[in-house]
Amino acid sequence: MNPARRIRDEIAAAIRSGEWRPGDRVPTEQELAARYGCARATVSKALGELAASGLVERRRKAGTFVAHPPVHSAVMTVPDLAELIAARGEAYRWDLLSADTDDVGEASCPGPALRIEGVHMAAGEAFALERRFIALGEVPEALGADFAAEAPGTWLLGHIPWTQARHVIRAVTPTRKEAGLLGVNASAACLELDRTTWRAGRVVTHVRQLFRGDRFDLVADFNAGP
Amino acid sequence: MNPARRIRDEIAAAIRSGEWRPGDRVPTEQELAARYGCARATVSKALGELAASGLVERRRKAGTFVAHPPVHSAVMTVPDLAELIAARGEAYRWDLLSADTDDVGEASCPGPALRIEGVHMAAGEAFALERRFIALGEVPEALGADFAAEAPGTWLLGHIPWTQARHVIRAVTPTRKEAGLLGVNASAACLELDRTTWRAGRVVTHVRQLFRGDRFDLVADFNAGP
DNA sequence: TGCGCCATTATGTCTAGACATAATATGAGG
DNA sequence: CCTCATATTATGTCTAGACATAATGGCGCA
User: Fold this and answer.
1) Which nucleotides of D are covered by protein (CB under 7 A)?
2) Is B163's CB within 8 Å of A213's CB?
3) What is the DSSP letter of A146?
4) A47 Cβ contacts chain D strand, under 7 Å
5) Is residue A60's beta carbon less than 7 angstroms from any atom in nucleic acid strand C?
6) Which chain A residue lies closest to B210 (C-alpha atoms)?
7) How close does chain A come to B20, measured CA to CA in Å?
8) CA of A55 to C1' of C14 (A)
9) N or C: which end of chain B has fewer CB within 10 A?
10) Are B38 and B29 in contact (CB under 8 A)?
11) Does residue B72 surpass a pLDDT of 80?
C-alpha cells in the first residue's frame, strides 16, 4: 500500500468513525511524516486530497483541522435512459413525436434552435417525455442527424465534448396531454428534470424530461473523500 | 499564478471549449514540463487533479487522454431547510408533531429508535413534512434532546460527525392527511426526499421529507474539475 | 505465420531540501 | 491596557532526481 494512500485512508477512517471530531486538530505534517516514516511532501499530498474532498480544512500557520460536515452535498448521477432501462432488462425504444426548426428558441436556449419532442419507452410503455431545444448556432450539424433513429441525448453525447450543466428537479402534475402520452392518471405526480447544458459559456441544449413518478427515482450518494 | 494551477486550468479550458476532444492524446508530462519550464512532478500534480475530476484519463505507458464525458453526474446540495428559508428572507419555524420511542424502528433504520414527526414552516405556512427515525443504539444522547425547540436535522448535524448518506428523490402524490398538513390540494404533486445516514457502516438516522412541489426545486450543478 | 517474451516508455510515487505565504503569537512602544 | 510591528510556525508549492509499475510494440523463436 502507498504511504500517501495509507495516511489518507487512516485519517479518513478516524474522521468518519467519529474518533476525530469536527474542529479537532490533525497532527502537523512533520509529526505525521515522523510517525509514518516518510517525507513531508507525502503527508502533504495525503492531506491535500483530504482537503479537496472536504474532510479536513487546512490553514497556514494554524494547522490542519477536521472540517465540519456540510449540510449535505451528494453526487447524483443522472443516467442515460437507454442504459438505465437496459440495466433493468427491459427493451428500450425512442419514439420521435416531432422535430422542427425554430428561429426563436426559448428562454433558456435562445436563438435558432431545433425543437424535438419524443417519448422514451421501456418494455413497450411510456417511461418519460422529452422536449428538447438544440442551439443551431452551437451545433449546426444537428440538422443532419436522424432523431427518429437515435434519441437526441445519445446523439449529443457523442458529438458534443465536455460541457457544463445545471439540473433542476421538481415534482409536477402533468397536463392532460402529458398524462395521456405517459399513460398515467392526470393526477399522478411526475418528476420533472430540466437540464441546461453549456459549452464554453454558451448554451448548447436545454431539455425537459418528465418521468412517471411511479417508475423513476433519482439516487444520490454522499461519500466525501476517496 | 501557480505553474501547477496554470497547467491544470489551461488544459481544462482546452477540453471544455472543445479544442481538445474526447480520446485526444494530451502531451506527455515531459513535453508539458518543457513547454511550461517546470519540473515533471509539477505537471504530474496538475494532471493528477484533472484525472481526479474526471476530465482526463491516465494510462501507464499509453499516456494521458481526454476522457469521454460521463452521462451526467452532478453535485447536488441538499440545503439545511432553516438556512434555505432564511436566505429567502422568510421566517423559519419547526413544529414538532410527535416524538416517541419505538423498539422496532423501520426497514431502513432497524432496532430501537426515536420516531419524530414535524413540519417545517416558512413565512407561517407549511413547507415540508418530516418523519425521522434516529437509531438509539448509535445516538443514545438523542433521548435528552429537545426536539420541540430544535429540528432533529439541525441537532444531529451538531452531534454526529462525518457520515455517509444516500438520498432517494421521487415525485409522489400526498395522502389526504399529508395534503392537509401541507395545506395543498390532495392531487398536488410533492417531492419526496429519503435520506439514510450511516456512520462507520451503521445506520444513524433515516428521514423522509415531503416538500410542496410548487415551492421547492432541487438544483444540481455539473462542473467537472476545479 | 503465430505466439510469447522483453525492452521501451509514460505514468505513479517518493525523497530531501528549498523558498513562499499567511496567520498567529510575541514583544515594544505609546 | 491597547496597538502595531516583527518573529515564528505550519502549510503551500516547487525542484531534481530516483525507482516502481504497467502496458505496448516489436523482436525472436518455434
Assistant:
1) 8-18, 21-24
2) no
3) -
4) yes
5) yes
6) A171
7) 9
8) 24
9) N
10) no
11) no
Q: How many residues does chain A have?
A: 226
- What is this structure's pTM? 0.88
Min CA distance, B78 vs chain A (Å)? 5
Residue type, A86: A
Mean pLDDT, range B82-104, rounded to an integer? 91
Q: What distance in Å separates the CA atoms of residue A77 and residue B66, rounded to the nearest whole number?
A: 20
Supply the DSSP string of B136-168, one letter for each residue. TTT-GGGGGS-TTTS-HHHHHHHHS-S-EEEEE
Measuring CA to CA, how many Å separate B198 from each of A66, A213, B134, B193? 18, 27, 11, 16
Residue A171 CA to residue B1 CA, distance in Å, equals 45
DSSP B119-141: EEEETTEEEEEEEEEEETTT-GG
Cell numbers representing residue B150 in the block: 430544535
Beta carbons of B3 and B36 less than 8 angstroms apart: yes
CA B67 to chain centre: 25
Cα dihedral A12, A14, A15, A20 sign: negative
Residue from A120, A9, A219, A111 nearest B193 by CA: A219
- Give the integer Cα–Cα distance in Å for A121 and A129: 9
Q: Determine whether the interchain pair A77/B71 forms a contact, defined as Cβ–Cβ distance below 8 Å.
A: yes
* 3-state SS string for chain A: CCHHHHHHHHHHHHHHCCCCCCCCEECCHHHHHHHHCCCHHHHHHHHHHHHHCCCEEEECCCEEEECCCCCCEEEEECCCHHHHHHHCCCCEEEEEEEEEEECCEECCEECCEEEEEEEEEECCEEEEEEEEEEECCCCHHHHHCCCCCCCHHHHHHHHCCCCEEEEEEEEECCCHHHHHHHCCCCCCCEEEEEEEEEECCEEEEEEEEEEECCCCCEEEEECCCC
User: Cβ distance B189 to A7 under 8 Å?
Assistant: no
DSSP tally for chain B: helices H, then strands E: 6, 13
